[in-house]
Design a protein that fits this description.
The structure holds 2 protein chains of 2 kinds.
Chain A (H helix, E strand, L loop, with lengths): L8 E6 L3 H12 L4 E7 L2 H11 L3 E4 L8 H8 L4 E6 L5 H6 L4 E4 L4 H16 L6 H7 L9 E6 L2 E6 L3 E7 L2 E6 L2 E6 L2 H7 L5 E5 L2 E4 L3 E6 L5 E5 L4 E4 L1 H10 L1
Parallel strand pairs in A: 1-2, 1-3, 3-4, 4-5
Antiparallel strand pairs in A: 6-7, 8-9, 8-12, 9-10, 11-12, 13-14, 14-15
Helix pairs in contact in A: 2-3
Chain B lengths: L7 H25 L5 H20 L1 H7 L7 H30 L6 H9 L1 H53 L2 H17 L1 H22 L4 E2 H19 L3 E7 L7 E2 L4 H14 L5 E9 L3 E9 L4 H4 L3 H15 L4 E7 L2 E9 L10
Parallel strand pairs in B: 2-4
Antiparallel strand pairs in B: 1-3, 4-5, 5-7, 6-7
Helix pairs in contact in B: 1-2, 2-4, 2-6, 3-6, 4-6, 6-12, 7-8, 8-9, 9-10, 10-12
Classes of the chains: A alpha/beta, B alpha+beta.
Chain lengths: ~250, ~350
């Protein structure tokens, strides 16, 4: 370590195992510029802690209760730099896809920890912000469809299984998810969500609408050339020409 | 398809084997009748011989529909007599036609006349040749059957072995080791005696998993002890989040099971019932038995929304497959999903081992 004074790094440790958190804390204690400001035992706590404490750096386990590490990363977005800490090497490629600073494989020693920290310092010093778009797109393994949608409002996280979503509507910068009669807003482009949903279950029926096929009761003709989708609860959604062709193909 | 007709090489070989037969017939004929020389006899015998060679292959079909073991002797005899007559009729037809053609040449006048006087003997030779072919085909079929049974048996053995190996490889999950080492690494500074205890637990666990995994079957008590050791290690990792109970009914301990049947189920239970839950949970492993069966059960709590996330995984499929290859329909693996809990029930035919004491 060099003698020059450094900016302080505020970090949180997220791991459901106390012993594993203890190891990170112990190594961090050897670096006076790093301060562990919070410890979290699950994903929800992690999102709350990032929101409340605004840390510079997050040591993030992948396999945890409630939310896994990648889901946490998706929710905290570019707010903090992330070093993954896990026993599983299978996530390494995904981790770098989402611009993680480093990927520590348990068990690891103080030298490896220092190396990861070194890179984190550099990124923090450059005030680099992790780009959001690849983050979100990369937060899922290729070929796996989204099973649940996470909505963060401040420090609170809601987990919505995609099966509960009736349809999704584009609303400017947001999307509105209709879930059991209530609309939930999330900041995400509609096209981005569309790309991550199972195309056999969710269809973009219109520029502004994605429909859960399970909810479709029938297709009606509104005018000579325009169709509307009628849902099980009677809601009517517009269907574009392209959307109609997509539906025809699936039904 | 007839096995000989299936390949050109076999056809050639088969025809070649008829050459000595035709030669033998010609020699026999020319020695019996001084009026017939060997060359003429060969010319006359060759075409009917070639045709008969192919006709005799049909004995294969007759042999197949009248297998020696499954049909009565009179039926077999009747089938082959009928088929032999039919084959001989074709054989005689060729003889007739061919000798009629050759009769136009003065050089063959004498042999053809001689043939006409012995037509009955020629016909008998045709039937005889067909019957020899029948015997040959029965031999061929018996050969084929035993070879097929052998490969099938070999295939089963390989399959069972592979399943076992896969299972063993799946057992010793390297991540379990990595996570345990991480715990030890953390304990070395905060709690050195704890680190040592963890090392010993790990060593014991791996030693017994290697020892038991190498055996064909083990007593249930041994497997239960290993599961206890496993839970002890995981308790170091998860602390108060993991509660465990491993109970065997009295009298069951010496029942035999294939090794490491419970282990993957308990690993799953810890992963889904403890690791993926904020407050953890209790894993309950039980063994009980009646006169005929041994019943094992692994129970863990489950989140209501966890069911949708799936991933019961390789472990369960492996246990299923191993039990199926070993016990067939006598073993059963049943998954019981209740809201809030997940249970795997296993039923295995009961077999008692010697009541040896722990070493």
């Amino acid at each position: 370590m060099s003698a020059e004074p450094r900016t302080r790094i505020r970090a949180i440790v997220v791991d459901d195992e106390a012993l594993s958190r203890a190891a990170v804390k112990e190594y961090a204690a050897g670096h006076p510029d790093v301060e562990i400001v919070a410890e979290c035992a699950n994903g929800f706590e992690a999102v709350r802690a990032v929101n409340d404490m605004k840390p510079d750096l997050v040591f993030l386990d992948v396999r945890m209760p409630k939310l896994d590490g990648f889901e946490v990363l998706e929710l905290i977005g570019p707010d903090a730099h992330v070093i993954f800490v896990t026993a599983y090497d299978t996530y390494a490629l995904r981790a770098f896809d989402v611009h993680a600073v480093d990927y520590l494989l348990k068990p690891f020693g103080p030298e490896r920890f220092a190396e990861a920290l070194h890179e984190a310092r550099a990124r923090i010093a450059r005030a680099e912000r992790t780009p959001v778009a690849p983050l979100v797109a990369g937060a899922r393994p290729a070929g796996a469809y989204l099973e649940r949608i996470l909505i963060r409002s401040g420090s609170k996280v809601d987990v919505i299984p995609v099966a509960n979503v009736d349809y999704v509507q584009a609303r400017d910068d947001y999307i509105g998810l209709m879930v059991q009669g209530r609309e939930r807003l999330k900041q995400q482009p509609l096209g981005d969500l569309e790309g991550r949903l199972d195309p056999g279950r969710f269809v973009r029926i219109h520029r502004s609408f994605i429909l859960n096929l399970d909810r479709l009761a029938r297709l009606d003709l509104a005018t000579r050339h325009r169709h509307v989708a009628v849902l099980n609860d009677g809601t009517e959604l517009p269907v574009s020409r392209v959307g109609y062709a997509r539906l025809k193909e699936l039904l | 398809m007839h096995p000989i007709l299936a390949s050109r090489q076999r056809q050639a070989l088969y025809l070649a084997s008829w050459a000595p037969i035709a030669l033998l017939l010609a020699v026999a004929w020319s020695t019996a009748s001084p009026a017939v020389d060997l060359g003429a006899a060969l010319v006359i015998v060759a075409p009917p011989g070639i045709v008969h060679a192919f006709v005799c292959l049909s004995a294969w079909y007759v042999c197949r529909v009248t297998p020696l073991a499954a049909r009565s002797a009179p039926r077999i005899l009747a089938a082959h007599t009928g088929a032999g007559m039919l084959a001989a009729a074709v054989w005689m037809l060729v003889w007739e036609g061919w000798t009629r053609v050759l009769g136009n040449y003065p050089a063959f006048g004498e042999p053809v006349r001689d043939y006409r006087s012995q037509a009955a003997a020629v016909a008998a030779a045709g039937v005889l040749l067909f019957w020899i072919s029948s015997l040959f085909h029965y031999l061929l079929i018996a050969f084929e059957t035993s070879r097929r049974a052998e490969t099938r048996e070999l295939g089963f053995e390989v399959m069972a072995r592979e399943a076992e190996l896969r299972a063993l490889r799946a057992q010793i999950d390297p991540h379990f080791l990595f996570n345990s080492l991480q715990s030890i690494s953390a304990l070395t500074t905060t709690d050195p005696p704890g680190a040592r205890r963890m090392c010993l637990l790990l060593a014991d666990f791996f030693r017994s998993s290697v020892r038991l995994g190498g055996k064909d079957e083990i007593r249930i008590a041994e497997e239960m002890d290993m599961v206890r050791a496993y839970l002890d290690i995981e308790r170091v990792r998860f602390g108060a989040r993991l509660a465990g109970e491993v109970v065997e009914e009295p009298g069951c301990g010496s029942c035999l099971i294939p090794p490491l049947i419970l282990q993957p189920l308990v690993e799953n239970a810890v992963r889904h019932g403890v690791h993926s839950r904020v407050d953890g949970g209790a894993v309950r492993v039980t063994a009980r038995c009646d006169a005929a069966h041994l019943y094992l059960s692994v129970l863990n709590p489950a989140d209501v929304d966890a069911a949708a996330r799936g991933g019961t995984g390789v472990g369960l499929a492996n246990v299923r497959q191993r039990l199926a290859t070993r016990f067939g329909g006598d073993a059963a693996v049943r998954v019981v999903r209740d809201p809030g809990s997940f249970r795997v029930d296993v039923r295995i035919p009961r077999r008692d081992g010697a009541r040896e004491r722990e070493p």
